[in-house]
Amino acid sequence: MFTWLVAAALAQDAPESKPAPTLDVRPGAFVHIRPEIRMNPSFDADVDDDAYRMSQSARVFLEARRGLVATRIDLQHVYVWGERPSSLDTSPGAYAYQGYLEVGDDDRWVRIGRQEIHILNGFFVSSAPWNVAGRSFDALRGMWRVSDGVTLDAFGVVEAPPLPETEATDDSLGGTFGAVMAHFKPNDEVEPSVWLMARGGGPTLESPDQDKLWIAPGARLLAHPGDTRVDLNLIYMAGRDRGLPLSAYHLIARIDQRLGGLGFAAIFDQSSGHGCASDPLVEGCGNEVNSNFDLGFGRNHYLRGNADQVAGVNVRDIGVEFNSKPIPKVGALVQSHLFQMTNPDGQWLRNGGRPQGTSWIRNNDDANLGVEVDAIVDWSPQEGVKIDAGYCFFQPIGAGAAMTSTDPMHYLFVRNRFTF
Question: What's the rounded Cα separation, in Å, for the pair 367 and 5?
Fold first, then answer.
């Protein structure tokens, strides 16, 4: 298909062909500024560790299309206020956030180069819209709209290049990640999807013993009859990771209901976790099967709150949300989450997979980690402007309090996003 598309595009300039299509160019810019405060992030009130941070990204982009050939280039600069050593510092900081070539049209295309990939609702592959830097991949991706109700999508990502053998490490195949997906829309109320993902990697200089290789079939059912919206997702991983057979799953369910000007949502999110009979830092830690769900590149805040205290591995999240639009262009919501460990013998990991507190208790039988309450207000005064502010309260309980303390954490943020 790629060859056919390229040939069709080049034919635009062939002799005796139709006049060359015009060049369409669209420039643009995006600015994201996020001030935030974390109070008591270590959950120890006796430690003065409050953190204040102002993050910012500035992005300019250019889209150009001539016939079946298109390109997009994004240049972005990301930094934290105060990081530069002086006001006269001129060290370069911009980089190519996206830079790809696309051949095709709205019904079928192939895209190659650095690009965002955000599929389904971003549960497993996301462009990280919350993160100031965003997320992009070195990838080859293709899409084909087979009919009005059937779409096929596939991509392959290079995470790390292959490495030759050195004195310190064996040769490495690098890191790769990919998926094929079929999306169906038989009517306006039901949208099922199925996919098969795979990931491999290692060894690397950082992890010379890594031998990751897994495949993951999955399915999603999105239904939105009337004022109800149901989103069900299930994925299963099988393969090897860190010297052990891998067998892991992730279940996501979210049900939204509108009642006039009010909205209600019920959230259930559960992923398997690897129980440890010995120190989790020891490979295998006493078990014969690794059940930790590989975090990959999914989004976190849509499901597990905004405080970043719980990752999508070895976690059970039971949440509720109430939302409304009290005045035009302004929305408000309140979320509450109860976080538990799926496997109490496993670790408590925060967003990004980093250990939380001591992260593990030997022979633990208490699954409870903490309770989080979020209150968020968003304002969209005009097209291209979106501002939201929030306050998050996280209280460790049960095993979570034993791994950290009984002192709560507070998080306040304001996201300012402007698209031109």
Answer: 54
